[in-house]
Predict the 3D structure of the following.
Amino acid sequence: TQLLEQSPQFLSIQEGENLTVYCNSSSVFSSLQWYRQEPGEGPVLLVTVVTGGEVKKLKRLTFQFGDARKDSSLHITAAQPGDTGLYLCAGARDTGRRALTFGSGTRLQVQP
Amino acid sequence: DAGITQSPRHKVTETGTPVTLRCHQTENHRYMYWYRQDPGHGLRLIHYSYGVKDTDKGEVSDGYSVSRSKTEDFLLTLESATSSQTSVYFCAISDPNLAGLAYEQYFGPGTRLTVT
């Protein structure tokens, strides 16, 4: 059972289009992170959100943490081929273990 | 760059043989993690360490053991490799002193392991 569900699993779009990736759970998280991973490399941290309702922007990427801290979304405006990659959400819970639970990922392909 | 290296980067081994993967960090970060990544499963935690000789199991720890005798090295051992352990293995670090949030993790480049 996946604690964090990401959707869609795959997304292929044209350059210039907008897209949204969702990360949903029935559990409450103390913080949630988004990573991007390119082939042959490890995930790279994009952003951390910690407050319910929080919105963070990173250039053309907008991240939102749900009010109840159970879900998050990543919106990309005017996607570019350089946005291609695997996007992973990861949640932290205050269990004392200091470990993250990862979603299964969304693979994005942006065609020029 | 959190100064994380993994070795080897690629390995092919036979079923039943022991395998040890090494994660090395250069900046004295306290928390270290081992994950495996398989299609459709994202990253799954195998074991983690919160200090020298302090380790704990993750969600997929069966068939794996770890050791951390020095701050800088975290070893993952497959005592008797099986085909189901074919995967890409990632090491990560976390440090409360990095950006002030203990849960942010920084990953190594990965080790691709094939068990035939």
Chain B has a mean pLDDT of 92. Chain B touches chain A at residues 31, 33, 35, 40-45, 48, 50, 56, 58, 90, 92, 94, 99, 101-110 (CB under 8 Å).
